[in-house]
Amino acid sequence: MDKGDKVLQIVFVGSPLLDIYTDSDKEVLEKYGSALNSARVAKWFAGDKAEVAFAGCVGCDDYEQWTKNQLVSEGVVPLFVKNSKEKTGVCACLMFDGMRSLCTRLGAAAKFSEEHLYLNNIRNKLKTATCIFVVGYFLGHSPEVVSILAEQCSPDQVFSLSLSSEYICSDHSEALLKVLPRVDVLFGNEAEVKAFAQALKRTTLPQLKKQLKSLVVFQEFQLFHPEFL
Predict the structure, then answer these.
(1) Residue 146, SS3?
(2) Sheet (strand 89-96) strand order
(3) Confidence band, pLDDT 50/70/90 cuts, at residue 85
(4) Which of 54, 71, 173, 182 could lock 199 by a disulfide, CB 3.0 to 4.6 Å apart?
(5) Which residues form the Carbohydrate kinase PfkB domain (predicted)?
(6) Any bridge partners for residue 86, and if so which?
(7) What does the alpha-carbon distance between residue 88 and residue 16 come to, in Å, rounded to a whole number?
(8) Is the separation of the CB atoms in 206 and 183 below 8 Å?
């Protein structure tokens, strides 16, 4: 990278989870939640052209240490808030015939609150970030975090949000709609976008697009060929 090139600074806010994948009689442990995996992929893709950080709440256990060590080894800055009363969250992913079913115990991940946004290490990263990404799951347990992030993002910062799940789009559509005007890029798969459109009484994606600056829809089985609407 040339010295004159500007380094992107990306901050992901989400739920640090230990993912447990079970396929037939084979059990494989992998790390982490959706936003954490997104942060890892972003760093892998951008390399030294981006500084990537991840903020979330974890327990005081081995899972936290494993996750932290792995992030550091991959060049992602962990901005973990520790909760001594809860364990680091886990997510069981049951695979069958090419399909998956998820069962999550959020644990400490659900304890990330608006106060944590003002911790020096997290606040400083948010202030200098080029792009801030937060998972829609937070609308289910910590909606104030999403609201504050949306409110405090400067016009020069890109604010990105993922729909995360169909139930977020249907059960928390009002909270989602409140932050939508500040969202620069909204990520979701086809089913999530349709669920959100139906909750808003808009049955077509072009109608929903009128509310957004950019909408990225990931088609099923075409994760590396997203459709920009």
Answers:
(1) helix
(2) 26-31, 17-23, 89-96, 99-105
(3) very high
(4) 173
(5) 33-215
(6) none
(7) 7
(8) no
